[in-house]
Amino acid sequence: MVPAWLWLLCVSVPQALPKAQPAELSVEVPENYGGNFPLYLSKLPLPREGAEGQIVLSGDSGKAAEGPFAMDPDSGFLLVTRALDREEQAEYQLQVTLEMQDGHVLWGPQPVLVHVKDENDQASGHQATATVEVSIIESTWVPIEPIHLAENLKVLYPHHMAQVHWSGGDVHYHLESHPPGPFEVNAEGNLYVTRELDREAQAEYLLQVRAQNSHGEDYAAPLELHVLVMDENDNVPICSPRDPAVSIPELSPPGTEVTRLSAEDADAPGSNSHIVYQLLSPEPEDGVEGRAFQVDPTSGGVTLGMLPLRAGQNILLLVLAMDLAGAEGGFSSTCEVEVAVTDINDHAPEFITSQIGPISLPEDVEPGTLVAMLTATDADLEPTFRLMDFAIERGDTEGTFGLDWEPDSGHVRLRLCKNLSYEAAPSHEVVVVVRSVVKLVGPGPGPGATATVTVLVERVMPPPKLDQESYEASVPISAPAGSFLLTIQPSDPISRTLRFSLVNDSEGWLCIEKFTGEVHTAQSLQGAQPGDTYTVLVEAQDTDEPRLSASAPLVIHFLKAPPAPALTPAPVPSQYLCTPRQDHGLIVSGPSKDPDLASGHGPYSFTLGPNPTVQRDWRLQTLNGSHAYLTLALHWVEPREHIIPVVVSHNAQMWQLLVRVIVCRCNVEGQCMRKVGRMKGMPTKLSAVGILVGTLVAIGIFLILIFTHWTMSRKKDPDQPADSVPLKATV
To answer: Domain holding 450: CATH number?
Structure first.
């Protein structure tokens, strides 16, 4: 078997035939060629004016050529695509034409006969040669077809490549190469190449062989031979330098072109420099259909895939560029493409909190007061796209509120611009909307683009005012607990209700009614001295607004105790109360014969007597200046008649009323059920029991006698049927 790089093609084409009828070309191909395919066989002399035509390769009958042959449309070379076997077919008859698309023939047909050269016809060893015999017609050189040599041929040099002959006489051969190349000729006309050839350095050489006599004179014009260096796949595809990052907007549709790769291969046009592309990374994600990028294997165009991209991503694409159309044994290089996914304004700004408040503001708050601070965010990355604009959408028809914010900030302040009025509007619901300054791409703003601020207006009321700035009262040191001193009143008692209390009553001598403002002694004034004063602070709070209050000092002057007047008991008609305690009591009135009260000079003061049991079991509450209300203090009081001492005082006079109260059990209607005594002539309990027992004993004896008599009567006449025995009874 002969290596492919050792064979040499020789073609001899007669030039005498007319141009319209090209002579048949004869081409030899070594059998079982073991080199790379496709193998360039011969370049056909196609006319230049037919460059726009189509090269058609067919068999001798005009049908499409069968077998492993093809034409390279760029170079015009006849190719064989696989190894041939002479035993299967020794020769192939082909014809080549140059035609237009409409079938018009521009050139040809050119017959080509391909001979499959037997392996035994090849020389053995490391230096096999192919011979080109140059025929001499009338002592002239006959032109021959170009010689094709594979570049980087790995053989022993000098390597025989062809042989020429000059018939007649002594001849010396002289070789010239244009440009100078590694070629030489010996005396026998054998042409040699002395080293490896590199197509990238020089693709074609023109050799001139001169036939000279011993004096160095040419016998004829030199023979010109063209040596074409055939390409070998010895160059790696080279990617273009890495460019700056390619910017792709976010949400670009699938199929958008990112870039187009253009790798170069220094090999000659053909399969050796046929480059295809394959995407290496990013690799498909697990569980995710589709890829973010796609590469056209032929054109090298990089486009977007179905997988969406996110703004801010920087992706490095690795694309493999392979020659030999990606076939095994070729070279490859990795091309890099950097892709930066740029942001677009596809996110609408939104507030962090959609509901704020309620916020309470007094109606006298000054304009310019900060009401609330709202914060909005934007998911876009580009600072320009995060610029926001705020506005009050509704809830502020009167312009009571306003907004201010920094242009590059997501914080907006809601401020008060006008005075509030509780009567005009006790509450406000201000809706603030945020929008993107730059036009939004994609869906519009969502519900988060608005925030509602609820503002409650608090009514502002003036603090309460008492009818006096300070109060004074005098009381004898002997005054009993519950003695009336004075009444604290507001300056405007109709418009508002006050709740009164005492502050700094360290001795606990005084008490004040919460709502009426009446001040009484809470206990006996033990420890007080005549002429001393006792000061407490009276505080009045608004019942509706406890934070609003007023206060005034109360000065108590202690007087010398008057002589104890004789208490004149005044009986009070007997009345009754229910036990257990029910919700009612008794009305106790002052002495009706008091001339001061009748003339309206002053009220009475009512207190219970000093008896501890009475103060424990009973409660007395002053109703007005002339009456008091007596009720049970305990839930249960022994049912019986009680005499309750009530001390009534007016100025320096004191009376003691003895109130007779009958405490009894009551029925459901609240009526008293009294205990009654035994009626005259009625038996006692013991006598009633005796009579009942005696009666029962007499009845028992009577029944025993009847039963005994009946039994004895049956024993006297045993044969008489029981049904016929008359009942006899003796009383």
So the answer is: 2.60.40.60
